[in-house]
Write a structure and sequence with these properties.
The protein is 36% helix and 24% strand.
């Protein structure tokens, strides 16, 4: 009889603890790992389609310029860039993608770049390049601005500034 009462007590306590934990999680926004991963997924419907590779409307720029980003890879297909940005986010980076011709300081080639950032100083970008290169060996920093005359590229070996 003592064992049955003890077993009922333990079962009730564990159930109560689980209910309390669920309540706390929902109140404070704590999520299971699988729920966090779902939140990080990029919904392709949130972005313009790639049927027309002309530069999207200037008002759609998501980056506050000037800023610096760390380019990880570039793609002709927007879906590939979105998928790469999702994978980069999964590794814990603040990642997104952009359309290169939208920004005067970037290439006019019709590519989408998956990137980490933005940051707002060269020194921050240098630090971020070193960090991102641990996972993506070819990553490099670049200035994103509306000034077509300057191109700034940041690699571990140094900063290149070119005027066009």
């Amino acid at each position: 009889m003592k064992h049955l009462a003890f077993l009922i007590f333990i079962t009730t306590t564990l159930t109560s603890c689980e209910q309390i934990q669920n309540t706390l999680n929902s109140a404070f926004g704590n999520k299971k790992k699988s729920e966090k991963i779902k939140d990080q997924n990029i919904n392709k419907d949130d972005f313009p389609s790639n049927e027309n590779l002309e530069a999207p409307n200037k008002e759609n720029n998501l980056l506050q310029t000037p800023c610096y980003i760390v380019c990880v890879s570039a793609y002709k297909d927007i879906d590939d860039a979105i998928e790469k940005a999702r994978k980069i986010r999964y590794k814990g980076y603040n990642a997104d993608y952009l359309y290169l011709p939208d920004y005067a300081s970037l290439s006019k080639k019709l590519y989408y770049s998956a990137y980490v950032g933005p940051v707002f100083s060269e020194s921050e970008c240098q630090r971020l390049v070193r960090q991102v290169r641990r996972d993506y060996k070819g990553a490099y920093g670049i200035l994103v601005s509306d000034d077509p005359e300057w191109r700034v590229t940041i690699r571990p070996e140094g900063i290149k500034r070119r005027r066009y």
